[in-house]
Design goal:
Elements (H helix, E strand, L loop, with lengths): L50 E5 L27 H13 L6 E5 L2 H4 L9 E2 L7 H4 L2 E3 L4 E2 L2 E6 L10 H4 L4 E4 L3 H10 L6 E3 L2 H10 L4 E5 H11 L3 E6 L8 E2 L2 E3 L4 H14 L2 H9 L11
Parallel strand pairs: 1-2, 1-3, 7-8, 7-9
Antiparallel strand pairs: 4-12, 5-11, 6-9, 6-10
């Protein structure tokens, strides 16, 4: 779930089925009622008059883009470029905030969904909804439905795999705490213990150096890894959505009523086609990888 370098033109245009996704209210506890107004003046915010949004640092394409600016490494979430940055500003606009009223802060990935008080109104960082995580934080409805994929170096034996069973004999790796690692354990079930890394950068380096045979990441990240991070690599394939039904949601402190208002904004963005257009612009080629059954 971590990328590096600047946004590349590769991620330019796509039509992805299921953009609207499953916006099931089971992923969140927020419901908007007459007593829970979504008017900007009525929102309970971490910082009055500002929408405070968390994400990790580094921030990577295709999720974030724009010029490198301190304190952000690689990409700048404040730019409005990249899928998650663009979605954030679209939601903020629906809530009545101007771009300068959106305040980005650094929140490490694993910290975002840990129990306890939050310094952000919501965090957006390719965080998948899971029942375990939802016990200690609230999630918005889906803003992106995602498949996992495996990346390998061309010319290696794993590069010819055509099914999940073909992958089981290889050394796989993923970032710790991610649903990519969970997917390896629960669905691929390799014969050897998968490698875990503190960051996706470390996992990518392990693939480059031959420490692992295959890297499991979400599909848009897999395209970025093969295009920019690991020369002479390929997407071996993606895994069927039906296996996990994975979806990304914004993360909120447990009990935060803002989640209901964000869900209203997301539903509006789906209904008017804005979310689809953002997805088409920033998440290219996500449908062009073979399915590994």
């Amino acid at each position: 779930m971590r990328r590096s370098l600047a946004l590349v033109p590769l991620f330019a245009a796509l039509a992805l089925a299921g953009c609207g996704g499953s916006s099931s209210s089971s992923s969140s506890s927020g419901k908007t009622t007459a007593s829970n107004s979504c008017a900007k003046a009525d929102l309970t915010l971490v910082n009055a008059g500002k929408l405070t949004v968390g994400t990790d640092n580094p921030a990577f394409p295709p999720w974030f883009g724009g010029p490198e600016k301190s304190p952000w490494k690689v990409s700048d979430p404040r730019s409005g470029q990249g899928f998650e940055s663009a979605v954030t500003y679209a939601v903020a606009k629906k809530l009545g905030f101007t771009n300068p009223e959106v305040n980005w802060i650094v929140v490490p990935f694993n910290t975002s969904f840990a129990p306890g008080p939050k310094k952000f109104d919501f965090d957006i960082n390719q965080i998948s909804y899971t029942p375990a995580r939802a016990k200690v934080v609230d999630f918005s409805d889906s803003y992106y439905n995602v498949n996992q994929a495996v990346v390998a170096k061309r010319g290696t034996p794993i590069a010819g795999a055509q099914s999940s069973a073909d992958l089981q004999k290889y050394k796989l790796g993923a970032q710790i705490g991610t649903t990519s690692y969970q997917y390896i354990k629960e669905f691929i079930k390799p014969s050897q213990q998968p490698a875990v890394f503190d960051s996706n950068d470390a996992a990518v380096a392990a693939l480059k150096n031959g420490q692992i045979d295959g890297l499991v990441v979400d599909l848009p990240t897999a395209f970025y890894v093969t295009a920019v991070q690991v020369p002479n690599s390929k997407i071996v394939g993606q895994f069927p959505t039906g296996n996990a039904g994975e979806r990304f949601g914004m993360v909120f402190q447990k009990g935060n009523k803002l989640v209901g208002c964000v869900n209203v904004a997301l539903n509006d963005l789906k209904a008017d086609g804005t979310l689809q257009k953002i997805q088409e612009k920033w998440l290219a080629k996500v449908g062009n990888a073979p399915i590994l059954h």
